[in-house]
Amino acid sequence: MAADTPLSDRLDDDDYPAYTMGRAAEMLGTTPGFLRAIGEARLITPLRSEGGHRRYSRYQLRIAARARELVDRGTPIEAACRIIILEEQLEEAQRINAEYRRAAKEASESAAPRSS
């Protein structure tokens, strides 16, 4: 996001990397090591500040919170990351499928003969 974008717009943006690693870990009640581990597992990829520090968005924090939830229940971190990735892929596939169904329904309704 461009630096000339107003601060209020950036703070409302779910994808804006507003949180440092320390703050993100504090908010999640976890350690920076946990955030590094889910980054290494490619669950989330934090952006980097000009100084090279990891920065997290609210969207990434929600994903990290889900991972922590699974790990707290005893799921190994690698498995938790894979579960979340598969959940997101399923959600996207269901969204696309619903769009196709809606488009097919609209097409069939517009092609049907109209009664007078």
From TrEMBL:
<feature type="domain" description="HTH merR-type">
    <location>
        <begin position="18"/>
        <end position="86"/>
    </location>
</feature>
<dbReference type="InterPro" id="IPR000551">
    <property type="entry name" value="MerR-type_HTH_dom"/>
</dbReference>
<dbReference type="Pfam" id="PF13411">
    <property type="entry name" value="MerR_1"/>
</dbReference>
<feature type="coiled-coil region">
    <location>
        <begin position="83"/>
        <end position="110"/>
    </location>
</feature>
<dbReference type="GO" id="GO:0006355">
    <property type="term" value="P:regulation of DNA-templated transcription"/>
</dbReference>
<dbReference type="GO" id="GO:0003677">
    <property type="term" value="F:DNA binding"/>
</dbReference>
<dbReference type="InterPro" id="IPR009061">
    <property type="entry name" value="DNA-bd_dom_put_sf"/>
</dbReference>
<keyword id="KW-0175">Coiled coil</keyword>
<protein>
    <submittedName>
        <fullName>Putative MerR family transcriptional regulator</fullName>
    </submittedName>
</protein>
